[in-house]
Amino acid sequence: MKYWFDTEFIEYPCTIDLISIGIVSEDGRTLYLVSSEFDEGKASEWVKKNVIAKLGTEERFTRDEIKRQVVKFIGHDEPEIWAYYADYDWVALCWLMGTMMDLPKGWPMYCRDIKQLCDSKGNPKLPAQGDGEHNALDDAKWNRDAFYFLSNVERGNDEHE
């Protein structure tokens, strides 16, 4: 099964501090979790304005609780995991598990990247995201939509290039 995800995080030297994670499954299920443990004091002004200020009053969870819910949501059946510009998102997800060696059995040790898929298709213009950008669940839904858009594009034959 395919899963598309996104995280919001605070980046500072040697750390990617998870704020939230959103995941969409190929069968339409969604998961959105906000951490209770991020250090807002280390957030850049951009993150404060574009991510933290947009958080609602949703329940917050420890990283350990987020880990348990993510593992339960994705399961152990050799998932195919996708994100857009996935490097930091993948590290944030792996760190929830401990180390990459602690990933659940059956999970890949890599994330597939929608931006790389886009490049392989000649870098066509992707659909606009609209409202909700920098909300991890809305971004995960856009990742799914961008993936399906790219799945229908043949390299060099896209009218949007």
What does this structure look like?
The chain has a single domain, classed as Ribonuclease H-like superfamily/Ribonuclease H (Nucleotidyltransferase, domain 5), CATH 3.30.420. By secondary structure, the protein is α/β, with parallel strands linked by helices. The chain is built from 5 helices and 6 strands; from the N terminus they run E-E-E-H-E-H-E-H-E-H-H. The longest helix has 16 residues. The relative contact order is 0.20. The model has no long low-confidence stretch (mean pLDDT 94). 32% of the residues lie in helices and 22% in strands. Strands 4-3-2-1-5-6 form a 6-stranded mixed β-sheet.
Per-chain topology:
Layout: E1 2-12, E2 15-25, E3 30-35, H1 45-50, E4 60-61, H2 63-74, E5 80-83, H3 87-97, E6 112-113, H4 114-120, H5 136-151
Parallel strand pairs: 1-5, 3-4, 5-6
Antiparallel strand pairs: 1-2, 2-3
Q: Using the 3D structure, state the CATH architecture.
A: 2-Layer Sandwich
Shape: globular
How are the strands of the largest sheet arranged?
4-3-2-1-5-6
- Which percent band covers the strand fraction? 15-25%
Feature tags:
single chain, 161 residues, Nucleotidyltransferase, domain 5, 5 helices
Short description:
Helices cover 32% and strands 22% of the residues.
